[in-house]
Amino acid sequence: MKRKTLTLVFTGLITLILTTLTMNAFLRKDKSQATDEQGHVLTGLWTDWNKAVQQDRPKLQEEILAQIREKAKDQRLAWDFYDASTRYVDAVTDRNWKLADSLAAEFADNVRKFDEPIVTFTWMGRRGGDSPLDILKYVQDHAKSLKSSRNDAFYRVGLSRYGGIGAALAPFLPEFYANDYEYALWQLLPFTSYPNVNEGDIYAALKDYERDSYPLGVYLEYLEASLNSLSRDAKLAELQKFADKYEGKAVSMYAKADILDFRFDEMEKSGAESAEYEAFYKECQDFEKARKAFNGDEAKIVGGLNSVDDIVRNLTEKNIGLRVEDGKIIAVLKNLKSV
Q1: CA 189, CA 125: separation in Å to the nearest integer?
Q2: Helix (H) or strand (E) holding 320
Q3: Whole-angstrom distance, CA of residue 89 vs CA of residue 61
Q4: Exposure b/e, 291-308, CB count within 10 A at least 16 = b
Q5: pLDDT digits 0-9 by tens, 242-289
Q6: 66 contacts 106 by C-beta, under 8 angstroms
Q7: Phi and psi at residue 323, in whole multiples of 5°?
Q8: pLDDT single digits (tens) 168-181
Q9: What is the C-alpha separation between 202 and 268, in angstroms, rounded?
Q10: H or E element: which one contains 334?
Q11: Residue 262 is inside which H or E element, if any?
């Protein structure tokens, strides 16, 4: 009996150790070290680098960045490594542009050796030369690793070399990325050149991941209603349908804001009467009141939704415009009774 008890104890201990090792391997990233405001872990060296920048000492900046890069390699600090590597290339190139090609090759080799998917993804997306579908394939090939990590410091960087619908994406998205895989797919979405956002492999991969999740899956559904090649009336109908479906939820405010934008544009083109503008202004005020009434995560979702507030400012600003007609200067007053 004693031997059986000991055997069970050792078996349980071994199982516990193996389970712990497995979990540590799976959650190998997203360390809990203290960071600075930019998300760096090597805070002391970054402080030294900032001082060198303020003192305008480019050579010292390069030396410190090289130190950060090497320490980040040793400690597997993805963001410190990438940020220091990028800034090192920029700093040395500014001093000697002839080194640009060799520095780019060195950076590529360092990224390959570092072998961290979030680093490689960001490097591929920002350097140029890789097609969006090639980058998508890399993301999907490394989905397991990307889904097991959340390096949120990278979420501030983005992939800047493509515009398109990227400019239309709401600023709240990074708050809700669950992992690096989700971040990568959303970053790839602006790469599409399709007239409709709900076409192509990038969209399909993102839709498959998000499904009907809230808020990101629902926000993707909003983009389907907003970013398409439908006629004006058909698009307005889709936006209204979305707003009605998610009435009371913060994401519905994006469709409502688009509808107000459409209406304001029509009023400007048609030369609406003052009474129409006054009624519309009241609607915009009601919208802003509703937007600011959300709390918690819902408030985060609409915190950067400023298009209707811009309309309100446009409607209430006071100015004098001048134009020339038949040799006469005509003053156009906006929200002014006299000059």
Answers
A1: 12
A2: strand 319-325
A3: 11
A4: beebeeebebbbbebeeb
A5: 999 999 999 999 999 999 999 999 999 998 898 999 999 999 999 999
A6: no
A7: -145, 160
A8: 689 999 999 999 99
A9: 37
A10: strand 328-334
A11: helix 252-270
